Amino acid sequence: MQIREILTLKSDAIHSIAPTDTVESAVTKLVGLGVGSLVVLKEGQMVGLLTERDVVKGMVAQGCDLKDAQVSTIMVTDPVVANADDSIDYARDVMTKSHIGHLPILDGNSLLGIISFHDVARACLKEANFENSLLKRYIKHWPE
Fold first, then answer.
1. How many H helices and E strands in the chain?
2. I want to staple 37 with a disulfide (CB 3.0 to 4.6 A). Which of 5, 73, 102, 139 is the partner?
């Protein structure tokens, strides 16, 4: 299964914020949208990624009062990314090894969307269940 297949199940909306916006506005947006990450866009191009984890790390590094700080001071400027044609297994491995929960998906230089580790886990379970049902059909007299 390819990452592209996960993207077809998700909304086309890419939630973003500008690097000059305040962390307070970013947190408000994260909570209001019920998402764990925002793509940081400058002139329509991705220049970083901001996650809930980055906000917490920023609070430790810069003190708890981040509300007036700019997003650019705590965002990840070179996030790990994947290609839409990469496999779900690749996404799972890179997210696990990099300790990240959100992965921007590119098609060339174009940002197609963001997938979460939850999206990847759900896709892996769906694929495993499908393979399991095929194996059960293959084995004669398997109790259903």
1. 5, 6
2. 102
CA distance 89 to 140: 30
Domain regions of the chain by residue span = 3-138
Topology of the domain comprising 3-138: CBS-domain (3.10.580)
Residue owning tokens 């917490």: 56
123-138 per-position pLDDT tens digit: 888 887 777 777 777 7
The vertex-110 CA angle with 89 and 92, nearest 5°, equals 15
Q: Is 137 helix (H, G, I), strand (E, B) or coil?
A: helix
Give the separation between CA 114 and CA 23, rounded to whole angstroms.
20
Residue closest to 104 by CA, chosen among 50, 32, 29: 50
pTM of the model: 0.82
